[in-house]
Design brief:
94 residues; alpha+beta; Endonuclease I-creI; three-stranded antiparallel beta sheet
Length: 94
């Protein structure tokens, strides 16, 4: 009986080690930032969103994701000299 308990304990330890040592299949998340400039706020914001979409697609392809989820996004614009400068950022998870 004692040998059976020791063998069962050893087997459960091996099984637990193999389960824990395997990588987690969860996706990763990152923050992607893109900038755009334009003559007015509408053009600058559209350009920033266009660059943001490009960067999200590039990040997804580099990490081997076929579909990603954009969790939060925001766009901030401020005038700088003759142009308007917008920054778009988004949290992306694969």
């Amino acid at each position: 009986m004692n040998k059976l308990c020791v063998a069962g304990l050893a087997l459960s330890a091996v099984v637990a080690f193999t389960i824990v040592s395997q990588p987690v299949a969860a996706g990763s998340c990152t923050v992607v930032v893109a900038e755009g400039r334009g003559a007015n706020e509408a053009k600058a914001s559209a350009r920033a969103l266009k660059h943001l979409t490009f960067k999200i697609n590039r990040w997804a392809s580099q990490n081997g994701y076929t579909a990603v989820r954009k969790a939060k996004s925001k766009t901030l614009c401020a005038p700088k000299r003759a142009l308007v400068h917008c920054t778009s950022s988004a949290k992306v998870c694969g």
